[in-house]
TrEMBL record:
This is Heparan-alpha-glucosaminide N-acetyltransferase catalytic domain-containing protein. The keyword Membrane applies. Residues 1-13 have a biased composition (Basic residues). The chain crosses the membrane at residues 247-265, 280-301, 313-332, 352-369, 376-398, 471-490, 497-515, 535-554, 566-583, 603-621. The keyword Iron-sulfur does not apply.
Length: 629
């Protein structure tokens, strides 16, 4: 008996060694790809340095990121006013940039050094201050850290004015080298976690039930009967693509919140339009809805009472809301928390309210009616459509003092300055009326124009996580719920699941095209993250369905990708989210930089901080530590 047991043990060990050889080859491939990306980043470094110029170097004022120096030489006998208009600012007024004195005498022009933004093309306008006559106007996209000159002079005819733009010092390329660090950073992060051996230790951080951000639960199958699992009751495996989806959204969110290298496309759009930063929150909401469907279905199949589920939904929502209030009001570390300036809306608060409504609808809707595929749970669809009609009526019909009906603009200098105090229209008005100006976000993205950091676009507070936008976040989560119902109904019929995901993605994309007229600012309802507009929800839902198809095919169907390293943060989303907010200002997530006006240094710091959280989530996963509320 002892010899037989020994032979069986040796057989198991020999079988375990063979996959290790294959894994070593895969690790070597990942190592080589990461090393190649790093070498490319180093090789192209000289290309992002300042290129030498044949023109003499001119001493310029200290420049910040995304700024350039513009020296205006005025050979005319009258002062000039220089104004600018960002091409990114829709229907905005020209803003004064500076006044150029008149030339003292022929050959001795007046001049002034100005600072211009480099994120987007700008239109410069030069006017005579005497008669307010436009002398010249031209459009140009200035380069970061570049030095430029504009010469204004009379030609042979004194009534004709000539303006010419000259590049004195070539700008730097702040984009080329840095983006080679992205594949290198995450390849090395994946490589490091692959070399850490798994541990058999089991730790428990808390035994409370699941948080809506992480509704899918822990990866182990040995769970208590009362805890919802991440898989349909008829399946014995876990859908890793859902955790990978959540992890991708979470990692982008952490990177963006830490600064995103201070690049404009890693910041939220000032008003209409989309950047990378605007993708992640709706995707969180979407995948939360998918997880709700799978979790509640599994609980009901195990015989959990609906009343018990509703109690847990309410309690989770309250917990999540309170955590959110604490996170966005950090002054408690500096003294008593004052109600006077307490911000009430926020990301986790929006998630809490959305989870409460969608999860309650799903529990009660299962009670009412059972259908399949597209007509899954029609009473809940009826409720969501009713809520959307309420949003449309309030947005376009609610009278807002001193503002036109249905106004969707940013106020301030937008719309030619006609409605400076109408930021957000009905959405902003409802928040200020219900919550008060002191209890909403004081520095929204609409405050600062994209071209010059000192120019104020709007002056009144506005909260992008306000009350009215919560209706559309419910729609977003409900579309995610639909994805979960498809997974449940078709089980392992992969082709049908992917076909329906694609259909939903295409249909929602077509709706977005109609609502926006395929334009940024000219549609019926523009894409707007601050408003959480209907077109914003349909567009991001379309992207979410398509991304889910890709991940489902790669991770769960063909198993070509394990989902690493994004899978690990997706398994501990609430801990990573709360942790990255609490420890944001501490090492190794933040340190003093030698040059705070360098995109490269900010990008390095933000990537290191993000990779640290990936590594932490991997260690927690290996030790089976999961924070659940």
């Amino acid at each position: 008996m002892g010899r037989g047991e020994t032979r069986r043990r040796r057989h198991r060990e020999s079988r375990a060694e063979r996959p290790r050889e294959g894994r070593t080859a895969a690790e070597m491939a990942r190592f080589l790809s990461a090393a190649l990306a790093l070498v490319l980043a180093v090789l192209v470094a000289p290309l992002s340095a300042k290129l030498p110029s044949s023109r003499p170097h001119r001493k310029s004022p200290a420049l910040k990121m995304d700024e350039a120096t513009l020296t205006v030489h005025n050979e005319l006998q009258s002062e000039m006013m220089v104004s600018f208009l960002s091409d990114h600012c829709y229907q905005c007024m020209y803003q004064q940039l500076g006044v150029v004195p008149a030339g003292a005498e022929p050959g001795v022009p007046g001049k002034v050094d100005l600072t211009v933004g480099t994120q987007f093309p700008v239109t410069l306008q030069l006017n005579s201050t005497l008669v307010n006559l436009e002398l010249c106007r031209f459009q140009y996209h200035f380069g970061e850290q570049g030095n430029y000159s504009v010469w204004v002079k009379n030609l042979n005819d004194s009534s004709q004015v000539n303006c010419s733009l000259v590049t004195d010092t070539e700008p730097v390329n702040s984009y080329l080298r840095e983006f080679f660090f992205f594949p290198a950073a995450f390849s090395f992060c994946d490589l490091i976690v692959s070399f850490i051996p798994p541990t058999e230790q089991l730790f428990t951080l808390t035994t409370m039930t699941h948080l809506p951000l992480q509704e899918l639960g822990p990866p182990n199958r040995a769970v208590e009967p009362s805890v919802e699992t991440a898989v349909p009751a008829t399946s014995g495996r876990r859908l890793r693509s859902l955790d990978t989806f959540r992890g991708i959204a979470l990692i982008i969110m952490v990177f963006v919140n830490y600064g995103g290298g201070r690049y404009w496309f890693f910041r939220h759009e000032s008003w209409n339009g989309l950047t990378i930063a605007d993708l992640v929150f709706p995707w969180f909401v979407f995948i939360m809805g998918t997880s709700i469907a799978i979790s509640i279905n599994g609980a009901l199949r195990r015989g959990v009472r609906r009343s018990h589920l509703l109690k847990k939904v309410v309690w989770r929502s309250v917990q999540l809301f309170l955590i959110g209030v604490i996170l966005i009001n950090p002054n408690y570390c500096q003294g008593p928390l004052s109600w006077v300036s307490l911000r009430i809306p926020g990301v986790l608060q929006r998630l809490a309210f959305t989870y409460l409504v969608v999860a309650s609808l799903d529990v009660l809707d299962v009670w009412w009616y059972k259908a399949s595929d597209f007509l899954l749970y029609w009473p809940a669809w009826l409720c969501v459509i009713t809520l959307e009609i309420v949003w449309l009526c309030l947005t376009f019909l609610l009278p807002v003092p001193d503002c036109p009906s249905g106004y969707l603009g940013p106020g301030g200098i937008g719309d030619f300055g006609k409605y400076p105090n109408c930021t957000g229209g009905a959405a902003g008005f409802i928040d200020r009326w219900l919550l008060g100006e002191n209890h909403i976000y004081q520095t929204p993205s609409s405050r600062v124009t994209a071209v010059h950091n000192t120019e104020v676009c709007s002056t009144i507070p506005y909260d992008p996580e306000g009350v009215l936008g919560s209706i559309n976040s419910i729609l977003m989560a409900f579309l995610g719920l639909q994805a979960g119902k498809i997974l449940l109904h078709y089980k392992d019929l992969h082709s049908k699941i992917m076909a329906r995901f694609l259909i939903w993605g295409v249909v929602l994309g077509m709706i977005s095209a109609v609502l926006t007229k395929c334009s940024k600012d000219h549609g019926f309802i523009p894409i707007n993250k601050n408003l959480w507009s209907l077109s914003y929800v349909t567009t991001l839902s379309s992207f979410a369905f398509i991304l889910l198809v890709v991940l489902y095919y790669l991770v769960d169907v063909n198993k070509w990708w394990s989902g690493a390293p994004f899978f690990y943060p997706g398994m501990n989303s609430i801990l990573v989210y709360v942790g990255h907010e609490v420890f944001e200002e501490y090492f190794p997530f933040r340190w003093r930089m030698s040059n705070s006006q360098s995109h490269a240094e900010h990008l390095t710091q933000n990537l290191v901080a993000t990779c640290v959280w990936v590594f932490i989530s991997f260690v927690l996963y290996k030790n089976k530590i999961f924070w659940k509320i």
